[in-house]
Amino acid sequence: MLHVNKQAFIDYARQCGADLVGAVPAAQLAKSLPKGVNIPALGPNHRSLIVFGKRILKGVSWARHIVTKQIAGGHYLRILEKIAMKVAYRLEDQGYASLPIPSPALDFEQRTPTDLTPAGQGSLLLRYAAVEAGLGTWGLNMMVLTPQYGPRVYLCGVLTELALDAAPKLKEELCPGLEKCGRCAAICPEDAIPRRAAVGAKLADVRGLNCSACAHSSQPYGFQSFVEQLSYVLGTRDKEEIWKRLRTRQSSELWMEMTQMKEASITGCSDCLQVCPVGEDYARLAQSPHRKEELPAELARTYDGGYVEVAHVGPKVKRSALIPKKEKI
Ligand code: SF4
Ligand code: SF4
User: Fold this and answer.
1) In this structure, is residue 271 part of a structural domain?
2) Cβ(185) to ligand 1 under 6 A?
3) 20 to 30 A Cα–Cα from 169, which one of 149, 203, 266, 294?
4) Does residue 312 sit within a domain?
């Protein structure tokens, strides 16, 4: 096997545009995965999974226009795919068979599109790999929080024959949990993040996500929207009406997402990652006046019967449903 200088390889990934780089032995990762999650592309000679993170732009976080944020989300995923391809080729040039694992890649035999919730940060597999590689820890909303960027980072990976050790996992949880923070849960438009927990409960016992609920907002042009639009179009026997329903803005948007925006279809809502106070970048992000207006520093909480509940606030700017109840044709 050829010699690879690990630091030189990390430097190369950074030169290619990665903001965070980590690796985990495939065997270690496989042991850490929950039931039902595995490494589908894993071949017998794949020894490590390298994980890359790309931070989101502060200017995008400050934007109030939801569609702008969504489109930017697609751009991060495309950049990450290019980084993964470059690193995979570099590794193969040095003798190590390698396979890029794109962030939005789905194995429909085993997983569903909700695997990419919340906010399209990366598949559950990539998020587990990032935690095992010491890049971050789990947040209340099942995103990976990093010391540098909190959850404001998107993930991608490369499976490789090269044997790499993992950096030690982070010892302390970065997320203070629902009782001490809960900002992501308070703002979630779908109320998909736990807002109620036993007083003093451990983060590991509370964190979670209603993935299907999240997908309504985070995957506005995902599979569910596609099915809803098809059902709407075909929900009449009147041929004229079918044509009218087909030639609507909703069909046009779905077409554009599938043909042009692609990855952006799974990066819709990002409210929970925008308000998370974890990360060195947050102090600067919080300077934006509209960020303060969106979610007050102090959230309302009620204590009752040994439980604490964070009041739901919801986002100030909310996306309208893809298919209005009464469509104008
Ligand atoms: S805030 Fe948005 S991305 Fe986060 S969990 Fe809720 S719906 Fe999903
Ligand atoms: S917003 Fe607060 S509760 Fe939610 S993930 Fe971030 S630190 Fe944890």
Assistant:
1) no
2) no
3) 266
4) no
Closest-CA residue, ligand 1 atom 3, reads 119
111 lies in some domain? yes
Q: CB of 91 closer than 6 A to ligand 1?
A: no
Is 127 within a domain? yes
Tell me the C-alpha distance between 311 and 258, whole Å: 37
Question: How many domains, the chain?
Answer: 1
Give residue 141 CA to ligand 1 midpoint distance, Å. 8
Alpha-carbon distance of 173 to 106, in angstroms, equals 28
Q: What is the pLDDT of residues 165-186, one digit of tens each?
A: 888 999 999 999 999 999 999 9
Cβ neighbour number for residue 64 with a 10 Å cutoff = 12
Tokens of 64: 């109030």
Is the CB–ligand 1 distance for residue 189 below 6 Å? yes
Provide the domain limits for residue 151.
6-160
Ligand 1 atom nearest the C-alpha of 217 is 7
Helix/strand/coil percentages in the chain, nearest 5: 40, 15, 45
Rounded distance from Cα 321 to ligand 1 centre (Å): 15
